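Marked as duplicate of an earlier ticket. Keeping the data here for the record.
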Amino acid sequence: MMEWTSFDTWIVVTGMLSAMACALLGNYLVLRRMSMMGDAISHAVLPGLAIAFIVTGSRGSLPMLVGAILIGIVTAFLVQGIFRLSGLDRGASMGVIFTTLFALGLILIRQAADHVDLDPSCVLYGAIELTPLDTYLVGGFEIPQAAVTNGAMLLFNLLFVVAFYKELKITSFDPALATTLGINADLLHYVLMTLVAATTIAAFESVGSILVIAMLIVPGAAAHLLTDRLGVMLGLSLVFAALAALLGHVGAITVPTWFGFRDTSTAGMMAVMTGVLFLLVFLFAPRYGVLSRVIQQARLALKIVGDDILGLLYRFQEMAATGTAPMHAGDFREALKQNWPVRMALWRLSRRRWVRRVENGFILTDEGLRQGRGIIRSHRLWESFLCGKMGYCETDVHTPAHHLEHFTDEKMQSRLEDAADRPGQDPHQRAIPPAS
């Protein structure tokens, strides 16, 4: 049974503050299509850390912060310079810079580890489980240093985003427009990259260099799948970051016990949980989720089959002497070359009372007749327009008209009729039904 202590609480709080500080700025990396820049900076700050350790012989926050910020700025300038001067795309420029600086940082850390109190694995993977041991006395309460650092970073990032919300929004979506409005897009870019570097170093003790990229990018990417509004996206990313921290720690101390192990890395499990949350959004997001799109496409396909059935019934009734002759289900399957979609569409049309089953097949109801008339009207108006105004008479206008008829409402029908000079017949000399 899981025993929750004050240590667990502080671990979760520290993880939340760290993840939220990263996620807040990460939204703008996602929107600017610069997700790799977060990866580049999070890896490239290693040589800055190593140099700070070698020069000062200390793991103090100030030398680490200065070293990370300086190397972060250098990284941003180098990537931008290579991108503009070499002709390489931005992703390739980032790859060149961050791999080189990361390798240099690993070499320097390896050299510094023998002379400075430095644990390379801590830099790479973090040590969030140990953060409650290093505390500050704030208002009579002992608060972990990492919580104070990441909380301050989150507050600073929040103030920055609020103060420059409009500028960040414009430069993220349209840098050219920002320049015409007098906003220095390049300066704002470098300030943002500097803050990303500072946030990265603040998160090192919590989640480490390798895992910080998950906190920078995944919450913002998940939020972007749920909304197109920047303000909502920022809020959702903070929620995802906080949830990932909480679920990550709970998972780290519970999931391994299911398989006979004691526990696992909380920082690693937090990164895993960001991936789990992203996967859930990726699958079930109302608009951009995979399953939602599959359902929407299936509904659209079913609607198109239903429209085709209504059109077939209307044409058949148009040619029949009695005006109410039925069509068999097999006739629809043969004409449309489909089986189950036809059955589903017939069931759907019957429920909507657009078609009615009779002994020998199906006929249109009054409402079905109106709907079928609208489909055929759209089809024949498109054929008239494509032939008379677009010059497609020598080609088969039936196929494009068949595609377009399913997405033509009454307003578009009226515009088509005016554009085609109000024809009474289509190019095949068939009467165009009047508007309902």
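See parent ticket for discussion. Strands lie at 135-138, 141-144, 355-358, 361-364.
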